[in-house]
Design a protein that fits this description.
By secondary structure, the chain is mainly alpha-helical. It has one domain (3-142). The protein contains six helices and no strands. The protein starts with a helix and ends with a helix. 35% of the residues are buried. InterPro entries: DUF350. Belongs to the UPF0719 family.
Length: 143
C-alpha cells in the first residue's frame, strides 16, 4: 500500500468514527435535554446555568470515552468498530439516563430541579462524576 493510500484510508477511518461519535454526542445531549425543563441549549447559552452545563459536559465526556474505547478495541476492522461504537455508545447513554432516574428516585437528586438552580450545586457534581464513571466503566468493558 502506498503512502497516499494509507493516508486516505486513515482519513476515512477517522472521518467515519468522528461521524458516529458526533451522532452519539448529539443523541446524548438530547437525552439530557429530555430530562431537563426547558430547552437545554437555551438553558446553557442564555441562562448560563452551570448545573445544566456540567451535566451536559460530563455526558459528552462519557460518550467520548466509550467511542475511544470502541475504536481501540476494533483493531482496525471498520465495520465491526463502527457497529460496536454505535451500540456501546447507545448502551452508555441508556445507562447514564437510568442512573439519573435512580438518583432522582432513590437518592432524591433531581436533574429537573438542579438545572433550575442558578448556582453550581453539589448534586450536579455528583451526577457529573456518575456520568463520567459510567462512561469509563462502559469503555473498559468494551476493551
Amino acid at each position: 500500500m502506498t503512502l497516499l493510500e494509507t493516508l486516505a484510508r486513515g482519513a476515512g477511518l477517522i472521518g467515519s468514527y468522528a461521524a458516529v461519535g458526533v451522532i452519539l454526542m448529539i443523541v446524548g445531549f438530547y437525552v439530557i435535554d429530555f430530562a431537563t425543563p426547558g430547552k437545554l441549549s437555551h438553558v446553557i447559552r442564555s441562562q448560563r446555568n452551570p448545573n445544566a452545563t456540567l451535566l451536559a459536559t460530563s455526558a459528552m465526556v462519557a460518550v467520548g470515552l466509550i467511542v475511544a474505547a470502541s475504536i481501540w478495541s476494533s483493531g482496525g476492522r471498520l465495520a465491526e468498530g463502527l457497529a460496536g461504537t454505535a451500540v456501546f455508545g447507545l448502551v452508555g447513554i441508556v445507562v447514564q439516563t437510568v442512573a439519573m432516574m435512580v438518583f432522582d428516585k432513590i437518592v432524591g437528586i433531581s436533574v429537573r430541579k438542579l438545572v433550575q438552580e442558578p448556582e453550581l450545586q453539589p448534586g450536579a457534581r455528583l451526577l457529573a462524576v456518575t456520568h463520567v464513571m459510567i462512561g469509563l466503566i462502559t469503555a473498559v468493558a468494551v476493551i
